[in-house]
Design goal:
single chain, Rossmann fold, six-stranded parallel beta sheet, two-stranded parallel sheet, 10 helices, 10 strands
């Protein structure tokens, strides 16, 4: 049965690409036909290249993974305007829908946080709702995270709120908040929806990370294949 997952975050730089690449490679190793897209981005294309590597290099081209790219390192909608271009929700939706037919699981990564504008009059929430995708919220496990996660969950499309999963990405040096956040957040959301990834190292390598049984169990518990 085909499934689409939308990976969003509480902010930019919280680990969305790390998680998306990790999940993509894990599913690929499990023999699942998986695709990963970052359809809209601005600034560098390191994230899209990381997804391409996680998929095995030749599965999808860089342009297929990231068809809308703009040079300026600002919000995609503004970066597009600087190049006198526009991105429309209908175009992105049609693009992802075309690829969904070819894969069992399709991963779609947003840019920035849930409400960061992707194009003209739409953001990640709008695209997620249009795709009717399972929301995965990625957050850095540090002080202030609980508030950021709860605000993001509150902003999810109402018809998808029951389907979300929350990924807490551990920092290199845990603090008091890091070790207590999951317990506190568990008072507001179902504990089976909470997953805490261990610190995966400065030079992230999904193949190396997947050697960790804890990481594989988290991904298996998240997506049953």
């Amino acid at each position: 049965m085909r499934q689409t997952l939308f990976i969003t975050g509480t902010d930019t730089g919280v680990g969305k690409t790390v998680f998306t690449g990790l999940l993509a490679q894990h599913l690929r190793k499990r023999g699942v036909a998986v695709a990963a897209f970052k359809p809209v981005c601005s600034g560098g294309r390191a994230d899209a290249r990381a997804l391409q590597a996680a998929l095995g290099g030749g599965a999808l081209t860089l342009e297929e993974i990231n068809p809308w790219h703009f040079r300026a390192p600002i919000a995609p909608v503004l970066a597009a305007r600087k190049e006198k271009k526009t991105v429309k929700l209908s175009e992105v939706l049609k693009y992802i829908r075309t690829w969904e037919k070819q894969f069992t699981i399709t991963l779609v990564e947003g840019a920035g946080g849930l409400l960061s504008p992707l194009g003209e009059d739409f953001d990640s929430r709008d695209l997620m709702a249009a795709l009717r995708a399972m929301p995965i919220v990625v957050a850095q496990n540090k002080l202030g995270m609980v508030n950021h996660v709860l605000l993001t969950l509150e902003a999810l499309p109402k018809n998808l709120r029951a389907e979300e999963a929350i990924i807490l990405v551990s920092p290199p040096k845990p603090d008091a908040a890091t070790v207590s956040n999951a317990g506190l957040l568990g008072g507001y959301v179902a504990r089976q929806k909470l997953f805490t990834l261990p610190w995966l190292g400065e030079a992230f390598d999904p193949a190396k990370a997947l050697k960790d049984k804890r990481v594989r169990k988290i991904l298996d518990d998240l997506i049953k294949v």
